[in-house]
Design a protein that fits this description.
Layout: H1 2-16, H2 18-38, E1 44-54, H3 62-80, H4 83-93, H5 99-105, E2 106-110, E3 116-123, H6 126-143, E4 150-157, E5 165-166, H7 173-204
Antiparallel strand pairs: 1-3, 1-4, 1-5, 2-3
Length: about 200
C-alpha cells in the first residue's frame, strides 16, 4: 500500500513538473541541432596521376641513375607546391585562394617508388577539388620542362567529377537533435525526482 502511495506521489510530481521535463527536452534538442550546425562542413578529396621520366645521361652508372631519379622526383614534387605551378593554376581556374592557401590544399606523393606522382587536393567543394587536381596536373605537364630535363611526362589519370572521396562525414543533424532531446528529457525527469525527494520532507516537517 505504501509502495502504491509512493508511485502515486511520483506521478503527481511528474505531472506537476511536466513543463520542466518538456522544456529541458526542447532545450536539449535545440542544443543538439546548434552543435551540429557549428560543426565543420565535409571535406572532399580528388586525385590525378602524372607519369614523369627524367632525361638520363647514358654514361651514368645504374647507381648514379637511381640516385639522380630520386632527386629528380623529389624536386618535381617540391615544384608542384610553388608559385611556378600554382600561380598559373590560380590564374587559369580563376581561384580566389592565394598561392599559399592553395598549396595547403595540395598534397603530392610518389606512388610506390615509381615514376608516377599523385596530386591530391582537399576542398569543401567536390567539384573544386576535382578542377584543382586536374588543373595542377595540366600546368605541371606543361611547365615542368622549364625547370627539369624530362624525357616523358604524361597525365596517366585525371580526377573524375562525381568520384571524389569524402574524407569527413556530413554532421548527423537528425540524430544529434534526437539525442539532445532525450538527454534533456532524462535531465528533466532527474530534476523532478530531486524536487520530489527534497520538497516532500519539507512539507512533512
Amino acid at each position: 500500500m505504501e509502495g502504491t502511495t509512493y508511485i502515486v506521489d511520483l506521478l503527481k510530481v511528474f505531472k506537476k513538473y511536466l513543463w520542466l521535463i518538456i522544456l529541458l527536452g526542447l532545450i536539449g534538442g535545440v542544443s543538439g541541432r546548434m552543435l551540429t550546425s557549428a560543426a565543420p562542413p565535409p571535406t572532399y578529396e580528388a586525385s590525378s596521376l602524372v607519369l614523369i621520366k627524367p632525361l638520363m645521361n647514358e654514361t651514368n652508372t645504374i647507381i648514379n641513375q637511381t640516385d639522380e631519379t630520386v632527386r629528380f622526383l623529389n624536386t618535381a614534387q617540391t615544384l608542384i607546391n610553388t608559385n611556378a605551378i600554382l600561380g598559373p593554376v590560380k590564374k587559369e581556374l580563376k581561384l580566389r585562394d592565394n598561392v599559399k592557401a592553395l598549396a595547403g590544399k595540395v598534397r603530392v606523393s610518389n606512388e610506390n617508388g615509381s615514376h608516377v606522382i599523385k596530386i591530391t587536393v582537399n576542398d569543401k567543394s567536390p567539384d573544386k577539388a576535382t578542377r584543382i587536381a586536374n588543373g595542377v596536373a595540366d600546368v605541371f605537364k606543361r611547365e615542368i620542362g622549364s625547370f627539369l630535363e624530362v624525357e616523358k611526362v604524361n597525365i596517366v589519370e585525371k580526377a573524375q567529377k562525381g568520384q571524389e572521396d569524402k574524407i569527413s562525414q556530413v554532421p548527423r543533424t537528425k540524430a544529434n537533435t534526437i539525442m539532445g532531446t532525450v538527454i534533456g528529457l532524462i535531465l528533466g525527469v532527474f530534476l523532478s525526482l530531486v524536487l520530489f525527494f527534497f520538497i516532500k520532507p519539507l512539507k512533512k516537517a
